[in-house]
Amino acid sequence: MQNFQGEQTGSVPRLVKAAGLLARREYRAAHALCLEVLADDPESAEAYFLLGVLTADHGNHAKAIELFDRALTNNPAHAAALAQKARSLMARLERDRAVETADA
User: Fold this and answer.
1) Fewest C-beta atoms under 10 Å: which of 30, 37, 83, 100?
2) Of the candidates 84, 93, 94, 86, which has an alpha carbon nearest to the alpha carbon of residue 57?
3) Smallest Cα–Cα separation from 49: which of 70, 32, 30, 63?
4) What would the mean pLDDT of 65-80 be, rounded to a whole number?
5) What does residue 34 show for φ and ψ, rounded to 5 degrees?
6) What confidence tens digit (pLDDT) does each residue in 10-21 have?
7) Residue pair 55/71 in contact by the 8 Å Cβ criterion
8) Distance, CA of 70 to CA of 87 (rounded, Å)
């Protein structure tokens, strides 16, 4: 799940911690760390990606897609963001867009 290409060096430890918190479903703490990273680095693809995963975990796939798109704007090669976006599109029954996204 880690894809720190292009991230500011100071952001990486917080993003690693946020990913671990998210894996343990400690959503509030993960959310707070991601927002800290974005305050320092508004173009952090990984922070947007992690927020997208958190949002998808809560069933808000429309917002998750927006967050994955923000991640992809800042890092078009973020494969995990593409995969998670495709999953959220499938959850919204947007099969054609999901297939296009997965193919990318």
Assistant:
1) 100
2) 84
3) 70
4) 96
5) -65, -40
6) 678 999 999 999
7) no
8) 16
